[in-house]
Amino acid sequence: MALTGIEIYKYLPKTNCKECGFPTCLAFAMKLAAKAVELSLCPYVSDEAKEALEAASRPPIRLVTIGTGERKIEVGNEVVMFRHEKTFYHPPGFVVRVKDSDPDDAVAKLVADVADYSVERVGLELKMDGFAIDNESKDSGSFIKCVEQVSSKTDLPLVLMSQDPAIMGQALEKVASAKPLIYAATKDNWEQMTELALKHQCPLAVYEPTGLGELAELVEQVTGKGVEDVALDPGARDFGQSLTTLTQIRRLALRKSFRPLGYPIIAFPGDAGASMEEEALLAGQQVAKYAGIIVLDHFSPGIAYPLLTLRLNIYTDPQKPIQMSPGIYEIGTPKPESPLCVTTNFSLTYFSIAGELESSGFPSWLLVCDTEGLSVLTAWSAGKFDAERIAKTVKEFNIAERLSHHSLMLPGHVAVLRGELEEELPDWKIMVGPREAVDVGGYLKQHWAA
Amino acid sequence: MAAVEVPTEKWTGKVHEVTLGGNGRKSVVIGGASTLPFLHFEGSLPHRPVIAIEVQDSEPKDWSPHLIDAWGDVLADPGAWAKKAVEYGADIIALSLKSAHPEEGDTGADEAKKSVDKVLSAVDIPLIILGPGVAEKDNEVLVAASDVAKGQRVALGNCEEKNHRTIAATCIADGHVAIGHTPLEINLAKQLNILLCDVGIPRDSILMDPDTGSLGYGLEYTYSVMERLRLAALGGDAMAAMPMISPAGAESWRQKESKVTERVPPSWGDHEERSVIWEQLTAWTVLSAGTDILVLRHPRTVERMKALIDRLTSESA
Q1: SS3 label, residue A442
Q2: A145 CB contacts (<8 Å, ≥6 apart)?
Q3: Cβ–Cβ below 8 Å for B277 and A306
């Protein structure tokens, strides 16, 4: 938990020696609380105080990195139970399970399909994040071969799944530099797995399904030996268990600052779901409640796209709504004679009107103005959706060139802009549409005689 | 090793219980939760969330071929459609009087009465009756529907802030439940509940629809508005404690991902697979946020949601 300036002040020498560069210890404490300076500026701070302050400034859920480079997975460091309390920061990584018992060509195809997958949404490229290679065969030769095959095809982060430390050790000799997640240390193998994690500087998953107390104990043994980057597997597999256990772990970490469970969680929705749809639904639940790495047994674009969309939705910062880029959007397949509607670039506003136009049966042009992510009425009252700005957008994107008419439809809520807009755009006919998006279909039927 | 002590919430409030049906008809009790969805370890969830299947009073013109295939030839007959919905596992029929919309046929009170009567006599489960969403027509057809369904304790909606008095009055007169709908904002939802209580509807006769944005189309807002409303209810705010209803089916099936079949990027995958999971993920997410009544369209979504609710209700994890 972050400390306040006053709480930090209690740990300082209170001598006001000014050697830190601040006039008083209290002033220095305030700067520390704002994370504007380092504690090391104080030459007289005691070791005890240092430890207490460092512990307090550590995040309650450790940020853990899997893989290297641009596509590395960073998870953890969450600070709230509910996204509306602040935001969820690090979207869970979706990794697809590859079994070393599967034929080479099946593995090759799966790896290529997943690694190449990309889908565009609100201007973002959504992708899958990595692979979990499972030592299903229990055979070291097959595992090493599979690990080599996958890592030769992709730079995406890996999870290595084997409970046999000897096999894990051999695999790590091949790919440790890619910083895979080692899955997993158990109460039987933890000493050897811990040695491997330390030797290769890789994150280590800890699996202990008998209870949170037992899991915490095993984590403490592992971290006691020096492993810092841990992922938790409490073994909660079905919907209800996962919801309950992951909620409890998140609460312990955030509300009780319980360090042994202050790590991201790895989840296996496929272990509970008999069908691909069930797996997707459990994965969806775990996106919101509260997984860090989600290992999927299936990959299919028709499922991946909705799941990636869900992750994008849940991990959108509620304080910073997604904005559409300003410009011309085609709804359906509009023709030069199709209607032109104007709206703001708040994503929800865009989606409301785009959805209604989509189902209205009128292919349309939708011109999105930059209102800094504000909705129609809010933007209008903030002076960010006025005649001048609309006229500028009309000209900037040269929408007239794509039309055989000069009619433009305003949202009904800003009917008041009509007069000014007629002055700004003298050769245009300004129409005032309905106030609510839901009525746009009816409005067009009545007023758009195309 | 001693067991870890898990922090539990000591909630003071609970969701109001609302009963639909009865009086010869099967009845369903909704609400009553004194903890967040499916968290059995710290509160009681006396009534499981329920599934309503949407039935329209006239044959849908713009439905996806996957929905039409799934339902077959009953779509032209609300009575037959409702019967089949019961076979598919509906707890409630949500009858949409869509044909009363000025753009969809502009039918009136007489037609509404006939449709409601057909469905009431075809099935013995409770009904939700929804107007076309145009204030004037809602008043006309819902008042008529209310009269036909008198004594059957149906839910009538939607009441909007600017248009709640007529529907509220008819609910009071005929002993029905009112559904209040507000646009994605916790305070507006509470305010409408207050207005409905002020005109005299008892607290156990109000459902709230705080607005559903489907997956990819505002789901994050719905999710957080529902979570906040439910947290407020558990925290003791009686005006946030009405059970929630979500038209997750209709909202999902009207999106591009479900509707459009041509010029679709290959990364969107198979159309049927995508559109059904779109509805399922939307439904599952709003259910996790506190929805008490899901209104759905595809039979497979109904089956799946019922199975998951079973699992989460029976598991005492």
Answers
A1: helix
A2: A100
A3: yes
Q: How many domains does chain A have?
A: 3
Are residues A278 and B259, on separate chains, in Cβ contact within 8 Å?
no
Nearest beta carbon to residue B265 from set A119, A304, A306:
A119
Q: What is the CATH number of the domain that holds A15?
A: 1.10.15.40
Q: Give the domains, in start order, of chain B with CATH numbers.
A: 18-314 (3.20.20.20)
Partner residue opposite A355 with nearest CB, options B254, B288, B308: B254
> Do A313 and B215 make contact, defined as CB atoms within 8 angstroms?
yes
* Residue A321 counted as domain residue: no
Distance CA A325, CA A397 (A): 12
Q: At what angle do helices A239-255 and B299-314 cross, to 10 degrees?
A: 60
Distance CA A449, CA B22 (A): 50
- A388-404: per-residue pLDDT in tens? 999 999 999 999 999 99
Report residue A286 as tokens. Answer: 């775990």
Sign of torsion over alpha carbons B106, B112, B114, B115: positive
Give yes or no for B273 touching A (CB within 8 A). yes
Per the CB < 8 Å rule, is A348 touching B311? Answer: no
If residue A369 lies in a helix (H) or strand (E), which one and from where to where?
A: strand A364-369
Q: What would the pLDDT profile of A205-256 be if each residue is shown by its tens digit?
A: 999 999 999 999 999 999 999 999 999 999 999 999 999 999 999 999 999 8
Domain hosting A98: range is 64-314
CB nearest B259 (choices: A214, A352, A358): A358
pTM as predicted:
0.89
Beta A93-99 vs A124-126: how paired, if at all? unpaired
Alpha carbon B174 to its chain centroid, in Å, reads 21
Q: CATH no. for residue A146?
A: 3.20.20.20
Give the whole-angstrom CA distance, residue A120 versus residue A271: 29
Note the pLDDT tens digit of each residue in B124-135.
Answer: 999 999 999 988
Best interface-test mutation with B: which of A80, A83, A84 has the largest number of B CBs within 10 A?
A: A84
Q: Copy the structure tokens of residue B297.
A: 């369209």
Q: Does B123 score more than 90 pLDDT?
A: yes
The pLDDT value recorded for residue B317 is 40
Which pLDDT does position B315 carry in this prediction? Answer: 54
What angle do helix axes A190-200 and A212-224 make, rounded to 10 degrees? 50
CB contact residues (below 8 A), chain B span 135-174, against chain A: none
Residues A268 and A353 in one domain: no
CA distance A10 to chain B (A): 28
